[in-house]
Structures are given as structure tokens and as C-alpha cells.
Amino acid sequence: MEATMAIGEKNVGVVFVIAMRVFLDVLSFFVFCLLDLLDAILCYLFKVIDFLVEHEWRPCYCSSGQDAIVSSGKILVSEQGRSKIVCLCASELRLEDISETLYSRTSMVSEIKRSTAARVMDLKGMAKDGSNMVTAQETHRSGAVRTAYRINSTIVEMLQAGKFGRQMAHPVPRWSDCSCHKCVSWCTSPKEALYVRADGLREPKNKEFTDVLFIHGFVSSSVFWTETLFPNFSDDVKSKYRLLAIDLMGFGRSPKPSDSLYTLSEHIDMIERSVLDAYRVKSFHIVAHSLGCILAIALAVKYPNAVKSLTLLSPPYFPVPKGEQGSQYVLRQVAPRRVWPPMAFGASVGSWYEHISRLWCLMVSRNHRLWDFIARQVTRNRLRTYMVEGFFCHTHHAAWHTLHNIIYGAANKMDGYLERLAKLDRCPVTVLHGTDDEVLPLDCSYAFKSKVPTAQLKVIENKDHLTIVIGRQKAFARELEQIWATTAH
Q1: Which of 146, 238, 356, 398 is the most exposed place for a label (fewest CB within 10 A)?
Q2: 437 a catalytic residue
Q3: Residue 289 is among the residues annotated as catalytic for this protein
Q4: SS3 string of 47-110?
Q5: Using an 8 Å Cβ cutoff, are 339 and 112 in contact?
Q6: Do residue 150 and residue 199 come from a single domain?
Q7: Among 81-90, 330-339, 448-457, which stretch is predicted with the lowest mean pLDDT?
């Protein structure tokens, strides 16, 4: 009798779970259909306001691929499965990779149709020969078949006429960006460089020291490190190491150019000029969080003899299945367009909707001083509000392009990077990931470990994407000191 009741309760539980999943699926469908409509309305609204305020009708990524013109002489040239930016200058024609997800994001209804059609094709293939069949059309869609790039003759004529010489960037800030001194101080600087906070080396006469580069994650800044880790390093460490925490281009106090596409190469170039060259860095450790892990890996691959160790917190690595388009696959993993859990909903809105995310930046980032004041009043200064600066000091243009061109756009490069990283015997890799991370699941680090077997993986219990550092900064500072001390010089 008791066994029968237990089975009955189990069945009820299964039915409840299934019912909740169906309910959330239906709710997600309707919510994101409404967001599709809202984003389309905001598209026209922002265009009108841009024209009225800035006297310029700016294109956006809602435009068709072949007609979209980006700023400063950069024109989008697309082919099926992949696109690039043509940067036309007076002396060169340069191709620069961008993420397909910038302009190729289907509506919720189209996505349902696509997934349904794919399932039907799978069923037909299985019925025919018992295995999944890949049609020529699907192969072409996945990017296995490429077509040649074609550049309109008008572009060539404009290039020959010298119409794409050096142009001034669009006015900074835009009407929808913050204009406080912290956000625009770089505009008056004679040299555009990243903001770098240097600490350590309390004994200036010490000529034998090692540099440590700290790279923050998405919509964050150097304060993520300087307000947590830097005060907790021992005096001995600060006498031997020079700690360099940067604000990535587009965030914090660093330049936020409106003519940049914030690609991987642009971010790396800025780090090289602002840190490696400016501070004459010869060899260095890297500590990186979330999105910063991609930049850290790229630096380690580019400077295999200079990087002494890599410490990666919550690396965003999603192995792309065969036949999938990398950036689109990672987009759906990070931003699945679901209303639950809340982190997934926030990531989905910020990743799929260009104009809704701009509206959010208009309300939040443009008014970060107000939100900072409110946070201080609510907490009565009992709690530091440094996270407000990290989350809100950026522009929509910078955040939107960095998200797509780094997190999603680097998907096709990550496997190659990790294969090369696995061969670097002189660069020990340590990966830390919290079990409660809802932004980037723990599976990302397990996949990383399978790709780089020599990496040491530390799973931190009951910690999420931020509390893996915040709240355990003292323990993490000791862990870093141990890693640096045991690294061969």
C-alpha cells in the first residue's frame, strides 16, 4: 500500500514538472513575441530621435546585411553563414571579423518555425535510413559551404575617389550616453589608452618584480579587482608584484569610441598599447573573470613565452557541436529566450534585442550617478557601492558589440585557442567556477578541462558568478599568491 502511494506521489511530481515546463514554454513564447514587437517599435523611435538630435539617420543591425552601413567608412559585407566588416581606408581595404549574431537574430515565431522544420527533417531522415541526414541546404546553412565575397562596384569607386579617408568619430557622447567627467575624460586626452590602476611594488628599489594583469568581465570594470582583491594581498606580495587592473575599452573610465566595433583584435590591441607597451611588461601572470577569460586566453596564445600563468574565473566556453554555426549556438546557450530563471531572461533580453537593451542603457547607464546616489542613501553608506560603477559605466554601443563580438563571435576560435593553450607547458592554467553560477554553467569549466587536460579545475561550492570573488576575496587572494609562488620563473 505504501509503495503504491509512493509511486502515485512520484507520478504526480513528474506531471507537475512537465506542466510547469509547458507553462513556462508557452509564457516564454508570448513574452518574447511581445518583446520582438517592442524592439521593432523602438527601432523606429530611436532613429527619429537620433535624426532630430544628431541630424543623422543612423543604420542599425535591423537593416538587411547587404545594406547595413556601420560608422566611419565600415560597411557590412555578408555571405551565407558568415559576415565581415569591410573597413575602407584611403590606403587599404581591410576585412575584420564580426559576429553573425549582431544582425542575424530571428524573431521568436521564426525561431519556432526553424526548430520545428529542423525536427521534421530529422524525423524524415531517420525514417528513411535510420540516421540523421544532412541535406545540402542544411550544410550550406551551417557554413560548411562558403560562397565568394562580392563587393559592390560602388564601394570600389568610392575607395578610388578617396571618400573613405580618415574620418572623425561620431560626437561623443551621444544623446543617450552619459556625459559626466568620468565617462568622457578620455575625449580630451592626447592619447587614447585604457584606464589602468597600478598597485604593489611598495619598495621602488626592487628591480626584480613580476607583473600581474587583471581583466574584468562583461559590464564590469577594474573596481571588481581593486575593491576586493587588492586590499587583501599581503605586503610581501605587493613588494614583489606589480598589480595592473584595467578597464576594458568601452567600460569604466576607459575610452568608449563610437566608431569601434569592439572586436577581439581591437580589445587585444588596446591592452597591448595601454599595458604591455606603456608599462614595459616583459612577463606576466593573468587573472581574468567571465568575458575577460577569452581575452586572457588570446593573450596567452599570442605571447606564449611571456605569460607565466593563467587564472580563469567562470570561463565562457561552450563546445560547438559539429554542423552548428558557432556564434549562433553560443547565443542560444547563454541567452535561451526563456523567462525563467531570471538570469536567463536578463541575458536573453540583453542579447537578442538591440533597441530594448539601448533603452535599458538610456535609463541606467546614462544615469549611473543617480543610481550610485540612491544606492548610498539606501545603504546609508554601510555598504560600498563600487558595483554600481562596474555595472553602469559603459555605453550601449560598447556593451552591445563587446557582448556579440567577444562572447558569441569568439566561439569559432575557442577550440583552436584551447588546443594551442594545452601545448603551453610553461603556462600553468587554473580554473575556478562556482556551483551556483546561473550566468555561465559549471559545464563550461568541465568542457574547458576536457580540452585542456593540464588545467587545474577548482569547483567552489555555493558560489555564483560574482560571489566566486566577492565575499571570499581574502581566501582568493591567498589562492592567487600560492599560484604565483609555485609558478616556475
Answers
A1: 146
A2: yes
A3: no
A4: HHHHHHHHCCCCCCCCCCCCCCECCCCEEEEEECCEEEEEEECCCCEEEEECCHHHCCCCCHHH
A5: no
A6: no
A7: 81-90
* Co-location of 150 and 212 in the same domain: no
Active-site residue flag, 239: no
- For residues 386 and 480, state if they share a domain: yes
- Global pTM reads 0.84
Given the C-alpha cell 545594406, which residue does it identify? Answer: 67
277 an active-site residue? no
CB atoms within 10 A of CB 298: 21
Query: Is residue 192 domain-shared with residue 126, that is, in the same domain?
Result: no
C-alpha cell read off for 375: 544606492
Task: Determine the structural domain holding residue 95 and report its residue range.
Answer: 65-167
Q: Which one is catalytic: 290, 309, 351, 365?
A: 290
Catalytic member of 36, 211, 437, 464: 437
* Domain stop point among 136, 167, 198: 167
Do 154 and 190 lie in one domain? The reply is no
Give the residue among 282, 140, 225 at the shortest CA–CA distance from 480. Answer: 225
Can you say how many angstroms the Cα of residue 352 is from the centroid of all Cα atoms in its chain? 13
389 shares its domain with 346: yes
Is 71 a domain residue? yes
Q: Residue 173, preceding bond cis, omega within 30 degrees?
A: yes
In a domain, 219, yes or no: yes
Query: Per the domain annotation, does 102 fall within a domain?
Result: yes
Answer yes or no: are the C-beta atoms of 223 and 386 closer than 8 Å.
Answer: yes
Does 31 map to a domain? no
Calpha distance 272→288 (Å, rounded):
16
Work out how many domains the chain is built from and give that number: 2
- Tell me, what CATH number does 408's domain have? 3.40.50.1820
Alpha helices in 178-234 (DSSP H): 181-184, 223-226
Whether residues 121 and 251 fall in one domain: no
Instruction: Catalytic residue, from 289, 355, 397, 465: name it.
Output: 465
Q: Whose CA is closest to 357, among 405, 328, 398, 386?
A: 398
Catalytic residue (one of 177, 216, 254, 365): 216
Of the candidates 153, 288, 146, the residue with the CA atom closest to the CA atom of residue 225 = 288
Longest dimension (CA), the chain: 89
Q: How far apart are CA 477 and CA 487, in angstroms?
A: 16
Which phi and psi (to 5°) does residue 83 adopt?
A: -140, 160
Are 94 and 209 contained in the same domain? no
